[in-house]
Fold this sequence. Notes:
The protein is of the alpha+beta class. It has helices at 17-27, 32-40, 45-64; strands at residues 6-13, 73-91, 97-113. The two termini are 13 Å apart.
Amino acid sequence: MAVKQYIAKTRFVIASPAKVRPVADVVRRKPCTKALALLENMPQKGAKLIYKTVKSAVANALDLNKKLDEDMLFIKEIRVDEGPRLKRLAYRSRGRADMTLKRMCHITVVVDEVAEE
Length: 117
């Protein structure tokens, strides 16, 4: 029996990938219920973003496969890729200007069933 994977993506999130990746490392390879509980109690902005993406992946899995239960799912893969950057001017003294980069990221969550033995 082929095990199907369920994917959710959140793209063009204005958050630095370097700040979101440590949060993703905490919940990687964990059961979805435990991961959602962890993310709910973390103070980082990235935790809220990943929480929404994991919740969406779980909803996709439960919608596509009616026999599944939320306790049977775990996070197989979670990726935080770099997105485009918004370039903004930051004005400085003496008529100068600096470039401020507002970084974006793409969050991809792959949810899979726990293999029954």
